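B., you asked whether I could sanity-check this one before it goes into the benchmark set. Here's the sequence:
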Amino acid sequence: GNTDLEGFDEVIQGSELMVNWFQEWPVVLQNGAHEDLHCANLLLEYSNAMLEEAEGYLPDLEESMGLFKAVALSRIGRNEDASAEFERLCETFPTYCSIYEEWSFHLRDKDSKKALTVLELGLKNCTDPKDHEVLTDHIELLKEHHEN
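And here's what the prediction gave me:
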């Protein structure tokens, strides 16, 4: 129904906080989307629904659900739509490291030079040292992948 997220746990009986599943379920789907087109389609459906109903949800919902949407579009082969979503996310959330990781993964086999450019853009925009470490690792993996 229309129960807001804060009151949701009061409506559902159980030991789990249901609010956790709003963020965990798409992670489960994303993991399955690597091998299963059905999971990718469910991820796209879920992320679209969450973005449409985003009022009153967690502050980073648009950021994370947008990324899940881009990943789902990539996995189901809607490459132009995925690239457009990744670009939109980079403009809207330029310091969100995971966007650059997933976008470079999306581009890796299609255009490794652009994938490298995306990771370098992430290094420029993300200031957290942990993000730099992650992006640098991805650059090294991309170079290894490109050599093979």
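One thing to flag: The mean pLDDT is 85. Otherwise nothing jumped out at me.
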